[in-house]
Design a protein that fits this description.
Elements (H helix, E strand, L loop, with lengths): L1 H15 L2 H13 L21 E3 L3 H8 L14 H5 L7 E3 L2 H10 L3 E6 L4 H11 L2 H10 L1 E6 L4 H15 L6 E5 L5 E5 L13 H14 L1 H25 L8 H13 L17 H16 L3 H20 L13 E2 L7 E2 L2 E2 H18 L2 H18 L9 E2 L2 E3 L6 E3 L7 H8 L3 H7 L32 H7 L4 H19 L7 E2 L1 E3 H30 L4 E6 L2 E6 L1
Parallel strand pairs: 2-4, 3-4
Antiparallel strand pairs: 1-14, 3-5, 5-6, 7-8, 9-10, 10-13, 11-12, 15-16
Pfam families: Thioredox_DsbH
GO cellular component, one term: chloroplast
Keywords: Membrane, Signal, Transmembrane, Transmembrane helix
Length: 560
């Protein structure tokens, strides 16, 4: 009974405490997935309330700012780890501020706006290829005012320009690259651009020249085109917002529509919703849990079971896949393939909080410790690696790191293994471990054509569980308890070895909004733990039926 109440409370809190921002947003997002939402307000955008940020400035970040460099720009006095990463590019970057806008007006040149975050893999790639390139820097400095924005410090700015790019070009992502007029109206944009023309597509240098030419010779057309796009986009989204506006609370019909749309995108072979690249989408999963609970309350247990089946298979597939860090805990950002195998290796705080939340919900429904162990796996990772000295939880860990000190950074280097490394570390238990996690001498990143299209992980292995654990225990003539014990010991040995590798960059910003989700989960884990203690105490100390009496300040207990 307590678990039913706890689940109801958790789902109610998760959905209704943020009805205006989470549930309502879901209803429009799921029915027209990938369509962005333009924030209210007129153009040009003014400075909106920035997200409160408490910064833990690590010695590493301070060193980035203080080290002597050949180049220095207007970002050198900033505190954001992402902005500090670009403080010594040859590009004359400005932060998002009046000084930059005034400079663009004074010079009568367009603005190049680049938005990203410190653990973004493709942001690093574009920095190395373009922003550290003297030729590209000269074009940017001569023809534009260049502005860098950390999307986690200014989500308001990111939301506006991401909406523009998504709506006009059908997709988005980071780094976000947008060209603006001096009054901040978008002219054109995109995401990552390679430096040179390739595969019939213009490179970044070509794009810079084309925007420069259009600004000098076809300015009216360029500005009118951008203004017209914004006008059409605003009208369309305004009409959509009115037609889809929801009353307080979530009506059953709206929940049914969401669940139906999600069901249509369900991958029955590999679990999850949608196709590659595959994101965990924990909020949508939680909505399916909520809807299934409502169906069960309405006596429609058959339909409820179908929804729960999708949810549980998706959660299990993610946990067994390479998107889950089997050695160190936590989950990576997304899977590049459809089978949850090869991830994009960065770890984001907001993913951890939401996934711990949904795995705990699954435990409350099923009473299966498999799900509670995964929730604890995530929280242990956060407690060990992501909590700062003052108690705040850091934002993210990078996807890229060096294979050894001084070498160039590569995606996933911290997390992947060769077959020989595993054999050297684990000795006699290597065969069992390799069998369990599908480790091969030539590497295992070949489950899908999308897993490693450029052979970046040739000869490497990303741990994934594809075989039945009980069957493997029988194969090695071990009890399931002994088999799991050996696996745990092996993972611990790999964990210790991994600690000697260069770690990925840690974005040690502490974002209050992202901390809230994780703290929320810790709170409910604590509640569940208290319940289990109370249940154990009462059932062991007071067998049978028990009556507690309070009379005249004396407590008595009678068991029968």
């Amino acid at each position: 009974m307590f678990k039913t109440w706890l689940l109801s409370l958790r789902l109610h809190c998760t959905l209704s405490r943020t009805a205006s921002t989470k549930t309502t947003r879901l209803l429009s997002l799921i029915t027209s997935y990938r369509r962005p939402h333009l924030p209210s307000g007129s153009w040009p955008i003014s400075v909106v309330f920035p997200l409160s940020v408490r910064r833990f400035r690590s010695q590493k970040v301070l060193a980035m700012a203080e080290r002597a460099h050949e180049h220095s720009n207007h970002l050198a006095a900033e505190h954001s780890p992402y902005l500090l990463q670009h403080a010594h590019n040859p590009v004359n970057w400005y932060p998002w501020a009046d000084e930059a806008f005034a400079e663009a007006r004074r010079r009568d040149v367009p603005i190049f706006l680049s938005i990203g975050y410190s653990t973004c893999h493709w942001c690093h790639v574009m920095e190395v290829e373009s922003f550290e390139n003297e030729e590209v820097a000269k074009l940017l400095n001569d023809w534009f005012v260049s502005i860098k924005v950390d999307r986690e410090e200014r989500p308001d700015v990111d939301k506006v320009y991401m909406t523009f790019v998504q709506a006009l070009y059908g997709g988005g992502g980071w780094p976000l690259s947008v060209f603006l007029s001096p009054d901040l109206k978008p002219l054109m944009g995109g995401t990552y651009f390679p430096p040179d023309d390739k595969y019939g597509r213009p490179g970044f240098k070509t794009i810079l020249r084309k925007v420069k030419d259009a600004w000098d010779n076809k300015r009216d057309m360029l500005v009118k085109s951008g203004a017209f796009a914004i006008e059409q986009l605003s009208e369309a989204l305004s009409a959509n917002a009115k037609s889809n506006k929801l009353p307080d609370g979530v009506p059953q019909g709206a929940l049914h529509l969401c669940a139906e749309q999600l069901s249509q995108s369900y991958d029955s072979q590999y679990g999850g919703f949608g196709s590659a690249p595959k994101f965990p989408r924990p909020v949508e999963i939680q909505l399916m849990l909520y809807y299934s609970k409502k169906l069960e309350e309405a006596g429609k247990s058959g339909e409820a079971k179908e929804g729960l089946k999708m949810v549980f298979f998706s959660l299990q597939s993610m946990a067994r896949g390479g998107i889950h860090d089997h050695v160190g805990g936590g989950f990576h950002r997304y899977s590049v393939d459809e089978c949850w195998h090869v991830p994009h290796f960065e770890k984001m705080l907001y993913d951890q909080g939401q996934l711990a939340n949904v795995y705990l919900d699954a435990f409350c429904i099923t009473n299966d410790v498999y799900y509670s162990s995964l929730s604890r796996d995530i929280l242990d990772y956060l407690r060990r690696d992501m909590i700062g000295p003052e108690g705040g939880i850091f934002s993210a860990e990078d996807a890229d790191s060096s294979e050894h000190e001084g070498s160039a950074k590569k995606e996933g280097a911290f997390y992947i293994w060769t077959s020989k490394e595993v054999e050297d570390i684990l000795g006699e238990n290597a065969t069992l471990f390799k069998d369990h996690y599908c480790i091969k001498p030539l590497g295992n990143c070949d489950l899908s054509r999308l897993s490693d299209p450029y052979n970046e992980f040739k000869g490497k292995n990303v741990l994934i569980e594809l075989k039945d654990t009980m069957a493997l225990a029988q194969k090695y003539e071990l009890s399931i308890e002994k088999y799991l014990e050996i696996l745990g010991e092996c993972r611990q040995k790999l964990f210790v070895t991994r600690l000697r590798r260069p770690k990925p960059h840690l974005d040690d910003k502490v974002l209050f909004e992202k901390n809230e989700e994780s703290i929320f989960v810790y709170f409910f884990v604590y509640l569940a733990f208290l319940f289990l203690l109370a249940h154990t105490y009462l059932t062991s100390c007071f067998p049978g039926n028990c009556v507690m009496e309070w009379n005249c300040n004396v407590v008595s207990c009678k068991s029968f």
